[in-house]
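Reading is simple: each integer encodes one residue's backbone shape. The lines below illustrate:
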Amino acid sequence: MIRVLLPHHLQTLARTGRQVEIEVDGPVTQRAVLDALERAYPVLRGTIRDHATQQRRPFIRFFACGQDLSHEPPDAPLPDAVAQGSEPFRVVGAMAGG
């Protein structure tokens, strides 16, 4: 099982807690995790990734094992600790302003 930590606004939308567990078939990549997350919580479709392009939405970031994975290719393997379930894949709502 893959553990995913969600920001508060997505927890509220999905009516779930901070951490969700999802099953990913095949290689554990950002795309596979987000596909499984959207299958389990259809209300999240379009909130993390754009509906048409499947690109990460602005102000959403991905972290795992202390690394910012936001700009990694979506089909690059995630760290082994995420694939094994010992570390979570974090979806973070970024902030901007001055």
In short: The chain has a mean pLDDT of 94.
